[in-house]
Amino acid sequence: MSRQGEPERPAATGITNSLPGHVEGQLVQAGIVHGGITFNYHEGQGARPGRRPDQVPRPPRGFVNRQRVLAELDDLLGYGDAAGCRIGVFSGLPGIGKTAVVCQWAHNNQRRFPGGQIFVDFAGLRSGAGGDVSEALAVCLRALGVRDQYLPASLADRAALYRDLSAEQRMLVVLDDVTRPAQVNTLLPQGAGSAVLATSTWRLGELVLDGAVLLQLDVLDADSALELLSALCGRQRIADEPEAAERLVELCGGLPVALRICGARLLIHRRLTIGSLVAELSDEQSRLSRIAVSSAHEERTVSAALELAYRDLPEAAARMYRVLGHVPGLSFDTAVAAVAAGMRSTAEAQEALDVLEASSLLSVTDDRRYALHGLVRLHARDTACALDPPGTERETVGRITGHYLVLTGSADRAVRADRLRIAELLGPAGGAADLAAASGPFAAATDPGADAISWLEAERTNILAVLRAASGFALHRPVWQLAEAFTVLFFHHRHLADWRESLELGAEAARLDGNAAAEARLRSLLSRPLLDLRQDARAKAELDIAEQLAVESGHVVLQASVQEFLGRYWDLHDRARAVDAYRTSLALNIEAEEERGEALARYFLGCAQSAAGEHATALIALDRARETFLALGDERMAARALADTGRALVRSGDLAEAAVALSRAADDLHRGGASHYEAQALEDLADLLDDPVEIRRCLRRALTIYEEGGSPRAAEVLARLTAG
């Protein structure tokens, strides 16, 4: 029916619908239209013209100048590549500043990416939508102008659309806190010259197959950490307390998140001094809980960041992580980790360590050992204390102490098998000790003695840490046994403070264990570092106790040894009494048919006789002692006897022969690794030389040795060099 007043139109027949050419955008084709018509249409799914996303957050306040890392990113990403998209994946500890670095680089390089910069926060996606790749693609598509109603439903369709829309763009995509390789390789833009920067606590090594370059971010060095603190709480506060600020950096381990939290505390609480904060954090038991800052809405802590990383670990790696929180020392190898965890196989331990390394919770040191950041170790320990049964830490320390006891005892014997020992380490007790013995680094060495000393030197701080921890858990017997074996290192390398502490721990452990012979041995040994540190009165007190205990023990060779150490004390105070002590030692060793002990007593007796002016008698005694040492294969003591022969020749007036003897002795002592005695020989040799160049060479070498060992002699040699 037609409208009133309008002629009726015939029905449309034979209508054709053709559209020549190419049409873009919305299109309506209609035949006969009656009445007023309104057309509604939506903008298409493609990117809006001129759309340039700029989503990467600005770097945080106080960003410190990581020039090396930023330059590395310049080389990797800055200039683009027509062949494809460049990929950099930053890994590192939670809170180490990965996001700050990539945001800083993105901010510095906005002009290099005319297609814009997209930022995807996978941590946020995980908290709200499971963190899946599909939702991340939706974030990228929205950034490119696609409205929600046009987002494809399937992952495959979203990925295809993303590739299509990014194909004409040179853009940077920053993917923060990724956990899986698919979260990176699915979001690679297609445009030539584009780049992707991803951050993760996980190393994600599989991405190398996609052309990614793996980048590791380390903690801040001391200067950069101080710069960060200055930026946060003001340079004047750092200048007012420079030593406390340096200690604060040390306690935070250079970890940016810890430094930022401490800086925030100092900024919020203006009456809180850096020194007061350092005092709070000095207690290791509560340090981690005190690195925190609270507001009305949230609390920021280092523990929270580490807890997120811990929760992502598989069960075996999580257990290993907790165990490592109880390992004394700064570093450890796979064998120590296996023993600590009670595993019989290093392969099982290695799997867990590999996961921890990949998660950035564990780092590899330059010598291919493992280490936990100080705050990570505290978190691992706290987590273990919260989740593991009571007594777990004591059991762990006990296993590790046994491991080091076997290896240190083996090292002691590799250096000198015939040395006096109270401990009878008859061999591994099975289980973890078998593993320790099998992994000994000097078991099949061509020069086991030298390798043993090298191993002991490398493990020195760890063995001392084990002694401290085992002492704290009252593991008395293994403590004194380990201290006795450990002392062989210090006969060669004079680390006086460490030697003293280890023997103090050992002597007290022997006392508590009720072993008089062991206590006498360790107290007499303790007199040596005390004398070198010029604590003569205390050395004499230790020797008096040792002498009494040695007699009570009935151990003749031990009594002879204590008399020898007494002679060393009397050498400094009463030469006649020194000669008497050495003669007593010689007689006891002859009685016990202890050949090496007899040679030692004869050697020290010769030294005392020379000092008393009996040069001819002294030279005979020294020569006889040296012959015995050589026959026993003790080249170190033979070299010492030769050096003292040189000193006796000096006193007798034969300076030319003395110089020859001292020079040969210094060389022999150097080859034998007896650096302390090498330094003494070089000092005496310098007194006999005429060439100023050679004199300075000898003294500089002696100074280096004394400084490394912490000897008071260093100051005297330095003064001599300065004066000359």
CA-atom Rg in angstroms: 37 Å
Which class of secondary structure composition applies to the elements?
Answer: mainly alpha
Task: Determine the N-to-C terminus distance.
Answer: 126 Å
What is the number of beta strands? 9
| Mean pLDDT over the full residue set | 87
Secondary structure layout:
Elements: H1 67-77, E1 86-91, H2 98-108, E2 117-121, H3 122-129, H4 133-143, H5 155-166, E3 172-176, H6 182-185, E4 195-200, E5 213-216, H7 222-233, H8 235-240, H9 242-252, H10 256-268, H11 274-281, H12 287-290, E6 292-294, E7 299-301, H13 302-311, H14 315-324, H15 334-340, H16 346-358, E8 363-364, E9 370-371, H17 374-387, H18 392-415, H19 432-438, H20 448-458, H21 460-472, H22 476-492, H23 496-513, H24 516-532, H25 536-553, H26 556-571, H27 575-591, H28 595-611, H29 615-631, H30 635-652, H31 655-671, H32 675-686, H33 692-709, H34 713-723
Parallel strand pairs: 1-4, 1-5, 2-3, 3-4
Antiparallel strand pairs: 6-7, 8-9
Helix pairs in contact: 1-2, 4-5, 7-9, 7-10, 9-11, 14-16, 14-17, 15-16, 15-19, 18-19, 18-20, 18-21, 18-22, 21-22, 21-23, 22-23, 22-24, 23-24, 24-25, 24-26, 25-26, 26-27, 26-28, 27-28, 28-29, 28-30, 29-30, 30-31, 31-32, 32-33, 33-34
Keywords for this structure?
mainly alpha, 5% strand, five-stranded parallel beta sheet, two-stranded antiparallel sheet, 724 residues, single chain, disordered N terminus
What does this entry look like structurally?
- With 724 residues, the chain is mainly α.
- The chain is built from 34 helices and 9 strands.
- The strands form 3 sheets. Strands 2-3-4-1-5 form a 5-stranded parallel beta sheet, with helices on both faces.
- α26 (556-571) runs antiparallel to α27 (575-591).
- It is elongated.
- The termini are far apart.
